[in-house]
Design a protein that fits this description.
- This protein has helices at 18-31, 49-60, 77-90, 102-108, 158-171, 177-195, 243-249, 268-290; strands at 7-11, 36-40, 94-95, 119-120, 127-132, 138-139, 142-143, 150-154, 204-210, 229-235, 254-257, 260-264.
- It has 291 residues and is α/β, with parallel strands linked by helices.
- The strands form 3 sheets. It has an 8-stranded mixed beta sheet, sandwiched between helices. Strands 3-4 form a two-stranded antiparallel sheet. It has a two-stranded antiparallel ribbon with strand order 6-7.
Length: 291
């Protein structure tokens, strides 16, 4: 952690909705005129798309160990730890981008499924913002969480997470349902061992819970809408959180525990604005005082 060069990390598994949270933070940054150095977790994958597919193929044919994007074997977590540490100390570091599709390939150069070259971060950023799988990772090879000043978890209940992943990978990426289910099963050990533990380290968790039947996610025809869900927001340390103010601003919300507030799904974006704006401004005030 660093008062001079704060780090915010949003962590959650693939298909959990971390990108939506990223947009909410981007809105706060624009409104408060904060310059953020953004890092995507995909840029710290160890293998490009073709090599990862080959390693998965070999594992499926018992020609190598099982592997998934959730596990440390397929990610540069020591490098992520070092980048966070460098930024916390100096406000600088090296970054690269993962090229997801043809549109990004035109913008960044290179082929979809590959990485750009490592390059220096932008000059004079106010903070670092990470979105990906391992913002709260702790293991024998790395301790990423120790550097993070504000760690946010995005954790829809598992059936909803699977529905979101099934729809995204089938409709946007062209995978068959069988292929997506195989990926879910392959990732499960790493999900249990390396993703779930991070949510015990977060400062704030957002868990979306549908209010419609999702008991069999593999036959769901659509993703439950925001209005068909509630969001459980958990604070690791509720001291200083004005729950009465939040409930007055978030209609139909209530406290389920002393450190939990439950809000309608459609209010999730507003809840983020209300919760994170003062937290980010506090980080900026500490940054100015330490300069």
């Amino acid at each position: 952690m660093s008062q001079r060069h704060p780090i915010i990390a949003v962590t959650g598994s693939s298909g959990a909705g971390t990108t939506t949270v990223m947009k909410s933070f981007a809105h706060i940054f624009r409104r408060e005129n904060i310059s953020a150095q953004v890092i995507e977790g995909d840029s710290f994958h160890r293998f490009d798309r073709a090599e990862m597919r080959e390693r998965v193929r070999k594992a499926d044919h018992s020609e190598g160990p099982q592997i998934s994007h959730f596990g440390p074997e397929s990610n540069l977590l020591a490098e992520l730890d070092r980048v966070f540490g460098d930024y916390a100390e100096t406000g600088h570091g090296q970054v690269r981008r993962y090229i997801h599709d043809a549109e990004e390939a035109k913008q960044l150069g290179g082929d979809p499924g590959t990485f750009t070259a490592w390059q220096p971060m932008q000059d004079k950023s106010d903070l670092l913002f990470y979105e990906g799988l391992h913002g709260g990772y702790v293991g024998p090879d790395a301790n990423v969480a120790r550097h993070v000043d504000l760690l946010v978890g995005v954790v829809p209940i598992i059936n909803l997470e699977w529905i979101q992943k099934l729809h995204r990978d089938q409709n946007l990426r062209g995978y068959s349902q069988e292929a997506v289910v195989e990926t879910i099963l392959r990732r499960m050990p790493d999900y249990v061992n390396h993703i779930c533990p991070q949510f015990s380290r977060t400062h704030v968790n957002f868990q979306r819970v549908p209010t419609v039947d999702t008991s069999n996610p593999f036959i769901a025809k659509d993703i439950p809408s925001a209005d068909e869900s509630m969001v459980v927001i958990r604070f690791a340390n509720p001291k200083g959180i004005d729950f009465q103010y939040l409930m007055s601003m978030l209609q139909n919300s209530w406290m389920s525990r002393p450190n939990n507030i439950v809000v309608p799904g459609g209010k999730m974006g507003l809840a983020m604005q209300l919760i994170f704006t003062p937290m980010i401004l506090r980080l900026m005030d500490q940054k100015r005082r330490s300069a």
